[in-house]
Amino acid sequence: MNRTDKTVAFSWFDDEKEYGIIAAIKSVDEDFIIENMESTTYVGFTYEIGVTSHPALPEEITVNFEGMTFIVFLGDCALGVVRNSYWSELPDEGFFQHLKVNVLEILLLNGDEGVYH
Questions:
Q1: Residue 34 — φ and ψ, nearest 5°?
Q2: CA angle in degrees (0–180, nearest 5) for 11-12-13
Q3: In this structure, what is the dihedral angle of CA atoms 82, 49, 6, 33, given to the nearest 10 degrees?
């Protein structure tokens, strides 16, 4: 299976403040396990998301960055965190909704690697 390694840069605005966001999108390892989800749901379609920003995003957002995972399944997608092998979906609003849209857009582009702005 091909490994995905893409990066996207975009802007996000909150409270009249602009944040420069860089998101790294990488395929998870083959031995990646989510205990509370059927493996057929996520195997081959799961990506680890790493995010940096300038200026720094508020703590109520960044607290969810560790273990952030994106899954494409059954014509849909979800952004969440995996901690101790358990999946928890992030709210589909604000920053996380914007991130989810940008990640999906980049994953739909041809190729396994690239940097997009």
A1: -120, 115
A2: 125
A3: -10
**Pairing of the two strands 5-14 and 113-116:** parallel
Residue 8 has pLDDT above 70, yes or no: yes
- The residues, ordered by sequence, that sit 6+ positions from 101 with a Cβ below 8 Å of its Cβ are none
Beta strands in 1-117 (DSSP E): 5-14, 17-27, 46-54, 68-73, 76-83, 86-89, 113-116
- In the three-class reduction of DSSP (H, G, I as helix; E, B as strand; rest coil), residue 88 is classed as strand
27: its two tokens? 């395929």
pTM: 0.91
Q: Cβ(57)–Cβ(19) under 8 Å?
A: yes
Sheet holding 5-14, edge to edge: 86-89, 76-83, 68-73, 46-54, 17-27, 5-14, 113-116
> Any alpha helices (H) in 3-116, and if so which ranges?
39-42, 59-62, 94-108
Q: How far is CA 23 from the centre of its chain?
A: 8
pLDDT value, residue 115: 87
